Structure formats: C-alpha cells, structure tokens
Amino acid sequence: MIVVLISLLFGGLFAACYFYLVRNYNYWRNQGIPCAKGLLLGLGHMWPVVSLKMSFSDFIQQIYKDHPQHSMVGIYNKTQPALVIRDPELVKIVMESNFDSFSENLVKVDPQLDPLFAVNPFFATGELWFISRKRLSLAFTSKRLKLMYSCVEQGCKKFDDYLDRKMSKSNGIIELEMRNLFCKYTGEVVAKAVFGVEGFCFDENHPTSFVTMGKLIFDPTPLSKIAQTFNFFLPEFNKILKIPFVPKQVDYFFRRIVKEVLHVRQQEIEHKNNFLQLMLDLTKSEGKQIDEDFLTAHAFTFFSDGYDTSSITLSFVAYQLARHPHIQQRLRDEVETVFDKYDGQLTYDSLKEMTYMDQVISESQRHYTTSGTIAKICTKEFELKGSDGLCCRVKPGTQIIISIFGLHKDPKYWPDADVYDPDQFSADRKSEITKFTFLPFSAGPRVCVGMRMALLQLKACLATVIRKYILEVSPKIQEPLRMQPGSFMTAPVGGIWLYLRQKIRRSCLLRETCISLESSESPRARSIVEVKQQFNAVMDGCQRYTA
Questions:
Q1: What gap in Å lies between CA 333 and CA 343, rounded to an integer?
Q2: At 498, phi and psi to the nearest 5?
Q3: How far is the C-alpha of 314 from the C-alpha of 189, rounded, in Å?
Q4: What is the 3-state secondary structure (H, E, C) of 514-543?
Q5: What integer is the mean pLDDT of 147-175?
Q6: What is the structure's pLDDT at 509?
Q7: For 462-470, what is the mean pLDDT?
Q8: Strand partners, 96
Q9: What is the pairing mode between strands 72-77 and 80-85?
C-alpha cells in the first residue's frame, strides 16, 4: 500500500511538472504564427545556447535563415514565448515608431550584484534610462568630441610607438592577435577620455592596466562563459547563484580610480576636458552633492561601451582588409592623400575627409557586428502585422528578438550578400539600402549614444596602422570564422591573427639606392646602365611591398 501511495505521489508530481513545463507550448500555434523546429521540454528552443554549442546570435540567425518566407517566427525561450521578427518594417515599429510599446531591452542586470552596470543605458529602464542617456549624450556633442580628440591623438601616438618597438625587434614583420592589439589602443583612449589618467595599456607587465581590467570583464574564459550564460539566459538561476558580471576586483579598481581623481581635482584649478569632469560640472550646476557611486557607474559605462566594442570592430576591419588587399591599398591611397594635404598630421578635420574609410568600416560592420541580436520586451500590448499577412497580438512581457546577423546577410536586401564590397556604402549607392536592414549601432531612441566617438577612434587608429603597415592573414587564424558560444559579444574562436608587415616607402628605397651608389668605389657603379638597373630593382621592391 505504501509503495502504491509513493508511486502515485511521484506520478502526480511528474505529471504536474510536465504540464507546468508544456503549459505555453501551444502559444504560437494558437496565434497562427509559424514556430521553429527543435522544441525540447523545459528548455524550449534554447538547448544550443544553454549547452554552449552555439552563440545566441548565431542561433537566432539560423532561425532567421530557416524561415525566408515568413515575416515573423515563434520560438520558446525555455517555457516563455519569444518572437523573432524578420521584416524591416516590423523592426522599425519595434525600435522606433512604437518605441513606448517595446522600450525595454531583454537583458537586465541585478543592481545589487552589478551596481556599475545598473545605470548603463543598455540595461537601464524607465527614469534611470532617461537620465543616464541624457547625461551620456552631453559627452558626445560636436564640441565635446573636438575637445576629446586630443585623447584619441595621444592614444594613436602611443599605439604607433608600441608597434615601432615591436617592429624594431623583428625583421619588419610581426604576428599579432588583433583584438588583443586594439584593446591596448581603445583602453588607453578611454582611460584618458573618461578619467584623464594613464591607462598603462602598452605596458604589458603593469598590474593595474586598463587592459587587465577589460580582460577580466570581456574575455570569454570558461568561468565567464558560464557567468554570462546565467546572467543573460538563465537569470532565474543566477538569483540563487549570484554570479556578478563585473568581478569584484574590477568594481574596486574603478571605484578607487574615481576616488583618487576626485581627490586630485579638488586641488586643481585647471579645467580638464574629460568625461568625469563633465559629470562633476553637471552635478555642481544642478546643485547636487557629489555621489561617487553614481559617478563611478557613469564612468564605467563609458569605459565598457568604448573599450571592447571598438576593439572588436577594429579587429574585424583589419581582418577584411587583410583578406582583400586591393581594398586595403585603395584605403591606404586615401589615407596618404589626406595626410599629405594636412602636412602629415592626423587631425579631427582630416578624419572627416576619409570617406572611403567610412565605407570600409560600414561594410565590415555589415559582415560582423559586435553583437548579432537585439532583444526587446513588450511593455504595452500591440498588434504586429507582417508584409506576408501574419498578424500577432503581442502581450506585455513577450520577448521580441531581431537578428542583426540575419538582416545584414539577407540577399533580399543585399545583392551578393556574402561579398565584401565597401562601395555598397558609397554616396551614390547608400540611398538604395533598405531602412532598418543595417543596424550596427542599433536604431531609434536606444541607438548607441557613443556612435560618433566610436567612429572617431576607429578611423584614427585605422589611419595610423594602414599608413605604415601592410595587413596579411596569418595561418594561425581559424577560417571560416566561427563565433564563440557563451559570449555576449561577437568573438571568433581562436581570435583574429594577422601579420603586420612594415611598409617601405618609395622615397626611402630611392634614398638608400643613392647612398649605395655614392659610396661605391667602382666608377662604373655610377654608369647610366647600373643606375637604371638599381632603379628598376627599387621599383620592383615598391610593387612587392604595396601589392
């Protein structure tokens, strides 16, 4: 009798658990919305993501590709229904036209676990989002960007010196992983632009380098993969495990930096042109007390947004240039022409004239963005109508997912979508791009507030590199590129390894030839025949180095 009762009890518990897990799995069928294949009990469609077999962005892109005939596709994020929208008009409605109904991003952080991330406009909601975004926007006006350009300029100088030192120890060629390389540059720029301090990013042995702190946050180590998975895809478990996204030592590092800078500022008269000073000025103008926690959180937002996203973008641009030498040379020609016009100086105004560089960056972002998805939460009930006739009454709490990767590589909107062609973004063709099919910085009220600063530091760094070095693909790189599972940002497995080969200028080779002729002891060395032979050898050398 007891055995029967126990069996009935376990049977009842199993049945209750089963019906609880499947309670929503008819939701999309009842709505008349096509549903993706691969549904698993309790996990919905998320097994490839949770098991770290695929990145979330690659997973959503696959859903996008599998339903080319539909404007929207239903999936289940564990037991909750989520809607993947494929129609650019629906993207416009969600991100811009009816922003009030979809104003919140899906990903959130626990303010108790991650107070530094809590005010980031990407994670913040409501009044906190509005205040944070407004404050950050003030840092990126045209006037402020011109003032902060000196930070970019200093970063480029240190970056150039670093590469010179590396080259001096080699035979004119070095092999580097691009994301690690460019993190040094972006870390140095952000340290100066945010805090007005040295980042020590090019000192590889410095214990408190901004690069060291950045790696602790953004490098997808096995532990950080698990932490990111819990933070972004299994938040209910993280309420128990309490794994912070920002390690405690990073939190302490930035709080200490802000405290030290504030102490120094109280003793200085000179006005500093950096973000922290702007936040201090705003606080004083509003007649408020200085809140170190609030200042630190805003400064950390600037750092986190400007450090990793820019270095990832630079690494993908460098990769595309290495894969397409003719485009690399065309960009180099533009950079050298502009440099000549500005007497060899890289200035705020000179960067504006590098229009082909804008095209190169945009086309690289079309192929590889820093994040491959945009995920929103419905906050007010709204009816979405697709161009194919599908209609969905979206209820509050429903997840809306947009595949940036899918839209960027859809042949319906991009002829020869897999071909790398910067001319798609030329002045005469840019108007042909279907709106809301190119979203590297998002769109609508939540568009990236630091977009102009990001482009400024991207262009300055590319100009510095491309002017002096030739980029070539290293055999270390794992092609075709595959994105790391468990990483919120787009990170290729194995990294992006390239060669940087020192570019020898024609003027340098000619000068070396003349010196060798003048130093020759043989009178015949100065004969016209030998001069011609050596000059032709010089020209051959130029062609090899600039091919």
A1: 15
A2: -135, 160
A3: 14
A4: HHHHHHCCCHHHHCHHHHHHHHHHHHHHHH
A5: 93
A6: 44
A7: 96
A8: none
A9: antiparallel
What does the alpha-carbon distance between residue 474 and residue 492 come to, in Å, rounded to a whole number? 15
Q: Is 172 left (phi over 0), alpha (psi -120 to 50) or beta?
A: left
| Longest distance between any two alpha carbons in the chain, whole Å | 117
Please name the residues in contact with 419: beta carbons below 8 A apart, sequence gap of 6 or more: none
Q: Please give the Cα distance from 377 to 168 (Å, whole number).
A: 53
pLDDT in tens, 502-517: 986 544 444 444 444 4
For residue 483, what is the DSSP state? B
Show Cβ contacts of residue 343 under 8 Å, excluding neighbours closer than 6 positions: none
Q: Grade residue 353 by pLDDT with cuts at 50, 70 and 90.
A: very high
Give the DSSP letter of residue 119: T
Residue type, 64: Y
Residue 437 confidence class, pLDDT cut points 50, 70, 90? very high
Residue 226 in contact with residue 239, Cβ under 8 Å? no
Q: Give the closest residue to 120 by CA, choosing from 450, 487, 368.
A: 450
Sheet holding 72-77, edge to edge: 72-77, 80-85, 399-403, 373-377, 104-105
Token pair 């071909």 is found at 419
- The DSSP result for 1-51, as a single string, is -HHHHHHHHHHHHHHHHHHHHTTTTTHHHHHT--B-S--BTTTBT-HHHHT
449: left (phi over 0), alpha (psi -120 to 50) or beta: alpha
Average pLDDT on 264-275 reads 68
CB atoms within 10 A of CB 470: 22
In contact, 481 and 487? CB cutoff 8 Å: no
Reply yes or no on whether the pLDDT at 207 is more than 80: no
